[in-house]
Amino acid sequence: MPVARTADGTPQWRRTTPRQDLLRWFGWLLLVALAVFCWNVMTKDTIWAFVWDAPNQAADIGSRMVPPRWSYMNEMWRPLWDTLSIATLGTLLAIVIAVPIAFLAARNTTPSVTLVRPVALLIIVSSRSINALIWALVLVTILGPGVFAGIIAIALRSVGFVGKLLYEAIEEIDHRQVEAIQATGASSAQVMNYGIVPQILPAFAGISVFRWDINIRESAVVGLVGAGGIGLNLEASLNTLAWSQVSLILLVILATVLVSEWVSAKVRHAII
Amino acid sequence: MMTDIVASGKIYPDTWRRPPFIASPLWRWAIYGGAILYLVLAVNSVDVNWARVAEGMARAGRLLSGFLQPNFVTRWSDIALGMQESLTMTVTATVVGILISVPIGVGAARNMAPSPVYLACRGIIALSRALHEVIVAILFVAMVGFGPLAGFLTLSFATIGFLAKLLAEDIEDIDAGQAEAVRATGASWLQLINYGVQPQVMPRLIGLSLYRLDINFRESAVVGIVGAGGIGATLNTALDRYEYDSAAAILILIIVIVMLCEYGSSVIRQRIQ
Predict the structure, then answer these.
(1) Per-residue pLDDT reduced to its tens digit, A16-32
(2) What is the pTM of this model?
(3) Is the Cβ pair A129, B258 closer than 8 Å?
């Protein structure tokens, strides 16, 4: 037990030894030094006059944002529908692609641990590392602007998410149930259908709804790069500095996100 | 057994059917029917310009060949600058985000804070979580101008919603006995946090911080698209110029750095926990 001595020599408990203290301080010092160094590199081209002017700018933008231009709502229904379509169809497409990949990536169902599993894991990692907005950026140049590029972008990003969580769920199943089905002489498809699928179905439904909820947020912004949905209106309003429309769009996005979060919480609660 | 059944004259089913996913038949058909109706409507509302898609396939081919032969050289100075901005804004935003999240996280824990503080902190968290990073970035770019400072502010703001929420949940889940014991010695509120709470949540706080560092790097690649600095701006420019080999090089760099971050943080987290 680390002990310090007071001036009159009575021992006193302390949490760390002096050596640990020193190491900790050194660690914190390194962290602070790194942060300060990064800060200096990052801000070397910053024009501080703009930054100090930020409160004025914020007040100016704020005053232009209120009141929101409610009449613009008439033009919002179609983009809102598109945003929902992008999120829902994108999630469905992702599920269709992710389920087989998850079965190939899970250690207990993959046909080959040395050959197939690494490929499936690589697909999952690559899909996860690239944000939906970057996928959208790439896909808009390939497929042209529109809802279709948004759906594919959302799907490509979600494959990694759904695939990763699903293959982890598959690896955690109770093996005895699988063995019990095998013992009845079931074929491998029957083992899959009656031994594995019922065990992962609740996790699968939860993951899908969770990703759909995230995708609603994402699909609201993929339009910024031309991939359809509310983001397109946001981009157009920003370019024309129509801040009263921007605030209305932000309110619509906020409401959509809250509703989708409520729906997903309800559904997950009903399943689990 | 068999004779019993025969004797009693009852007919028992000799096959088994899996119970349906949704028990009530009314709800089941309503939900399935509604889902199919929605799908048909949604798919029909997506108009795909197949001629444009066919035209784009050549570009897709060029992008794919770019992945096989990425060009790091031609735009190297742009790529290096973008990466430098992304990495520095990731580090600073994570550090500042954590510094702000810790007090907010403590304030948002029901067992540590009085009700008004709790509500205020939960409000901040909800606001930060509701707004997508890119939208926050747009607002910050409008306020402080283009460049990585706007990205830094965005990522710091986004870090608060993530870290403070999870930290608050963790503090609410601590072993109350330990906190009680510290409180029983007559400790002040700060001493309670320092000796009763902090040792219990520290491993998880470090784990979450590393995870957030990871997420912040990924997001730093995105905020550049709306002008908040970082590698996203470089990628946007490369795609605008149809330089698919440079774009592929940037995408490969992003994937590699994200994988390194993820691997590094998982190693550190395993050693801590």
Answers:
(1) 788 888 998 999 999 99
(2) 0.82
(3) yes
